[in-house]
Amino acid sequence: KFLVLGEKYSYNIKNKSFEFSYLLLDENHDEINKITITVEQL
After folding, report:
1. pLDDT tens per residue across span 1-42
2. Out of the domains of life, which is the source (predicted)?
């Protein structure tokens, strides 16, 4: 059981990529994992 917090996304102009990142927190609000998804244009 965990809480998902801190969805944010940004656009990197230099290498033309979108970055989505999520923070996974547990019930004590301790950081468990960070998920980063990068979408690049080919």
Report:
1. 667 777 888 998 888 899 999 888 888 878 888 889 999 887
2. Bacteria
Place of tokens 């033309």: 16
pTM given for the model: 0.52
Q: Pick from 18, 23, 21: which is nearest to 41 by CA?
A: 18
DSSP state of 41: -
Q: Compute the distance between CA of residue 34 and CA of residue 26 in angstroms, rounded to an integer.
A: 12
Return the residue matching tokens 């059981």.
1
Q: Which pair of structure tokens corresponds to residue 17?
A: 């990529």
Walk across the sheet containing 31-40 and list its strands. 3-12, 17-25, 31-40
